[in-house]
Amino acid sequence: MITTEVTFDELAALMKQAAGITVDPKELKEAAESPFDSFGLDSLGLLGIVGELENRYGASLPPDSERCRTPREFLDLVNSTLTAGA
Predict the structure, then answer these.
(1) What is d(CA 71, CA 62) in angstroms, rounded to the nearest whole number?
(2) Which is a Pfam family this sequence falls into (predicted)?
(3) Residue 55: CB partners within 8 Å, gap ≥ 6?
(4) Residues 6 or more apart whose Cβ sits within 8 Å of residue 81
(5) Confidence (pLDDT) at 85
(6) In a 10 Å sphere around its CB, with 0-12 CB exposed, 13-18 middle and 19+ buried, how is residue 13 labelled?
(7) Can you tell me the distance from the alpha carbon of 56 to that of 38, in angstroms, rounded to the nearest whole number?
């Protein structure tokens, strides 16, 4: 079971790494309910982030992970999955 949660800082770094999109983690947290496309991230970029997290944590994320519309929704799903040991 994983007890570390993925943070907005880590998500911002993953957005840069997987999709080439630079977002200030503070801005990402403040606008957590805004759609990913308002940050310039599309579903393909989110899919890259999902893949990176699965590799990093050795855990599969739900198949609908890349359909999350906001950073808050995505982090809630990812963190609940990782801490549940799914």
Answers:
(1) 16
(2) PP-binding
(3) none
(4) 59, 61, 62, 65
(5) 66
(6) middle
(7) 26
Rounded-to-integer distance, Cα 39 and Cα 43, Å: 12
Alpha helix positions (H), the chain: 8-19, 25-30, 43-57, 71-84
Is the pTM value of this prediction over 0.70? Answer: yes
User: Which residues does 52 contact at the CB level (< 8 Å), separation at least 6?
Assistant: 14, 17, 18
Contacts of residue 17, defined as CB under 8 A and 6 or more positions apart, other chains included, come to 52
Q: Over 50: is that where the pLDDT of 1 sits?
A: no
**Dihedral sign (CA 12, 43, 67, 86):** negative
Tell me: the pLDDT tens digits for 40-62?
999 999 999 999 999 998 889 99
